[in-house]
Amino acid sequence: MGKILVSACLAGVRCKYSGGHNLVPVIAELVRQGKAVPVCPESLGGLTIPRPPAEIKGGDGYDVLAGRARVMDKEGRDVTAAFIQGARAALARAREVGPEIIVLKERSPSCGSKLIYDGNFSGATRPGPGVTTALLREYGYKVISEEEFKGEGNPSP
């Protein structure tokens, strides 16, 4: 397998909105071995750690990029610009790395590949990609979730 780009939280970096991480040991090991490069679009977009959770309202990542939907935090602040800035920074990093595959955190408003939270902060999900995943896919990158990664012949944590 060639180099991969991964959500930093999956490698154990404490960059989640809550200040935590979503460690997947096999992904952390790939980073340690230099086979994977971590990236956190939300941090790259200038968002603080910790921060209020955010969800896409009115669509998915493609809709955000097209100006048809917004990313709002739980306190009612529009954080769309930070999510777009972070997605662009992640794209720049992907261009530097040239990854064979990108593994991002499912259900995240930035990184979700098949599912994102529905915008109501209820815990419910809806189909669709996050902002970063949408942008990366627009540029031809293969983006999957950590759940799919584990299913592609990679050991489960």
What brief labels describe this structure?
four-stranded parallel sheet; 6 helices; 157 residues; 31% helix; 8 strands; alpha/beta; 2-thiour_desulf
Account of the 3D structure:
- The chain is of the alpha/beta class.
- The protein has one domain.
- The chain is built from six helices and eight strands, in the order βαβαβαβαβββαβα.
- Strands 2-1-5-8 form a four-stranded parallel sheet, sandwiched between helices. A two-stranded antiparallel sheet has the order 3-4. Strands 6-7 form a two-stranded antiparallel sheet.
- Strand 1, helix 1 and strand 2 form a beta-alpha-beta unit.
- It is globular, with a radius of gyration of 14 Å.
- The two termini are 18 Å apart.
- The model has no long low-confidence stretch (mean pLDDT 95).
Care to give the gist of this entry?
The protein is of the alpha/beta class. The protein is built from six helices and eight strands, in the order βαβαβαβαβββαβα. Helix 1 links the parallel strand 1 and strand 2.
Write the layout of secondary structure elements.
Blueprint: E1 4-7, H1 25-32, E2 36-39, H2 41-44, E3 54-57, H3 61-65, E4 70-73, H4 80-97, E5 101-104, E6 115-117, E7 125-127, H5 131-138, E8 143-145, H6 146-151
Helix pairs in contact: 4-5
| Fraction in helix | 25-40%
Contiguous uncertain segments of 5+ residues: none
Indicate the radius of gyration in whole angstroms.
Answer: 14 Å
* Class from secondary-structure proportions: alpha/beta
- Output mean pLDDT: 95
Order of helices and strands: EHEHEHEHEEEHEH
Termini separation: 18 Å
Approximate shape: globular
Instruction: Tell me how many strands there are.
Output: 8
Pfam family, one: 2-thiour_desulf
InterPro entries: 2-thiour_desulf (IPR007553)
